[in-house]
Amino acid sequence: MRFKQVLVGALGALVLASALVLPAAALGEANITADMIMKEIRANESLQQSGILLYEKGWLFPEAECQNANTTLWNYVRGEMSVDTAQGLNLIIENYNAGTQITYKLYTEQEVAEVPARRRSEIYYFPAKSENAKYALVVGGNLMENSAILREGCSTAWQLHELGYAVFVLNYRIWNDAINNAPLEDVGRAVQYITTHAEQFDVQTDNYALVGFSSGAHLAGLFGTKEFGYPQFGVPKPSLLMMGYGVNSFFTLSPTYHMVMDDGCFDQRYYDLVVSDYITPDYPPVYHWYGLNDLSLITLWQPIQGPKLEKALEENGVPHIERVFCNAPHSCSTGRGTDAEGWLLDAVDYWEELTNPALQAEEAAQPGEAV
Question: Distances in Å between the alpha carbon of 133 and those of 123, 166, 175, 204, 351?
Answer without folding.
Answer: 18, 6, 34, 6, 13
